[in-house]
Design a protein that fits this description.
It contains 12 helices and 15 strands. The protein is of the alpha/beta class. The chain has one domain: Alkaline Phosphatase, subunit A. It is globular, with a radius of gyration of 20 Å. The structure holds zinc ion.
């Protein structure tokens, strides 16, 4: 997916900032299945067997434990597990989540909430808002706008239901104790593009003025080339949302953990939308550049670690249908030749990049070897690494 975007934006591969990070390995993502490098390449369709969903993958990355698909921060017995965010909070550090899809969707939810089913959006949103100790939550789900950012009256489930939305929409809501001083804290709630661009500093919930995702679900031909259909223009991009989160979190001298998701990359993959996939990946890539700039200007690579990876692959993208080959580069500004082989996730290894303080630990953890992809770690080992570095 990154390669399609590299070809379209630059006319060559490996042009993104993270593709030049010092730690570059691969990562397995299965939930209750497995990844067997000795047999998986035997048949093209083996990659379609037992892929993870985003809830189990997110939970694996936030707790270090495999669980069942649809599980949000709970184990296979449906018992709550401790997230790495909760561990950070218990050390007096700050935490946050940002996504281009609903903030109560599987990935941000799986770093903050605990629920037996990812589809319990309202309960998940309410846990995130009223019970969690995170300091910043940013994502879509705004029930007063449609997917084009036009005024509408949509379901309030993604933001916790009608009562919670009434509570949120006046600009302030009392949550749990986010800063650890024993007193419940008020969240500032921001919605407009200008509110995002102004940045904020206190505990913040950001819900941009769009329903399910910033751009990928907008009207117009979903199969059009990248950027052929005008983008929604009343919304922040992932870079701006990430800057808001960093501006909130960096007020804590003890440090922080921030999870930033380009969630609609997956949605474009499910819909086999080559153009919108490139748009979403470029939005993500630009956000990574902004985070790197933040590290260099406000911190340093000797005290901050950045991991860039995914939760799973989606759409089984190759150059030729049914063949495990590469995309064809047709030059900058021209769509590469892309064949989609699935509308679902796959069990393929995914790229994993890391840079900064402690990032070399991932090279040690990537002690399994795939005949084509080389060394890889498992998604449960991200927490192993962070715990080794922090505790
Ligand atoms: Zn998906």
């Amino acid at each position: 997916m990154a390669m399609a975007t590299d070809y379209f934006t630059d006319g060559k591969s490996n042009t993104q900032i993270y593709e030049n990070f010092p730690t570059k390995v691969s990562m397995s993502t299965f939930s209750q299945g497995s990844y067997d490098p000795a047999t998986i390449w035997d048949e093209f369709n083996n990659m379609n067997i037992a892929p993870t969903d985003s809830a189990a993958a997110g939970t694996a990355m936030s707790t270090g434990e495999k669980t069942y698909d649809a599980a949000i921060g709970v184990d296979i017995e449906e018992q709550d597990m401790t997230h790495i965010c909760e561990s950070f909070e218990s050390l007096g550090r700050s935490t946050g989540v940002v996504s281009t899809v609903e903030f109560s969707h599987a990935t941000p939810a799986s770093f903050v909430a605990h629920d037996v089913n990812r589809n319990n959006f309202a309960a998940i949103a309410n846990e995130m808002i009223y019970q969690s100790s995170v300091d910043v939550i940013i994502g879509c789900g705004n029930p007063e706008y449609d997917n084009n950012g036009n005024g509408a009256s949509m379901n309030t489930k993604y933001v916790g239901g009608a009562t919670t939305w009434a509570d949120l929409s006046d600009g302030s809501v009392t949550g749990a104790d986010a800063n650890g001083d024993g007193v419940a804290d008020d969240w500032s709630v921001i919605q407009s593009k200008s509110d995002f661009e102004a940045l904020t500093t206190g505990q913040t919930i950001g819900i941009p003025e769009v329903y399910t995702t910033l751009q990928q679900a907008r009207s117009g031909d979903g199969q059009a080339d990248a950027y052929e259909v005008a983008l929604n223009d009343n919304l922040p991009d992932l870079t701006t949302m990430s800057k808001v989160a960093l501006n909130v979190l960096d007020n804590n001298d003890e440090g922080f953990l921030l999870m930033i998701e380009g969630g609609a990359i997956d949605w474009a993959g499910h819909a086999n939308q080559s153009g919108r996939l490139i748009e979403e990946q470029e939005d993500f890539n630009t956000a990574v550049e902004a985070v790197c700039d933040w590290v260099e200007q406000n911190s340093s690579w000797s005290e901050t670690m950045l991991v860039v990876t995914g939760d799973h692959k989606t759409g089984y993208l190759t150059g030729t249908a049914g063949v495990y080959d590469g995309l064809v580069n047709n030059g900058a500004g021209i769509m590469p030749t892309m064949a989609w082989n699935s509308g679902n996730h796959t069990n393929q290894l995914i790229p994993f990049f890391a840079k900064g303080d402690g990032a070399q630990i991932f090279k040690k953890l990537a002690d399994q070897v795939d005949p084509l992809r080389g060394n890889y770690l498992d998604n449960t080992e991200i927490v192993t690494a962070i715990e080794a570095l922090i505790f």
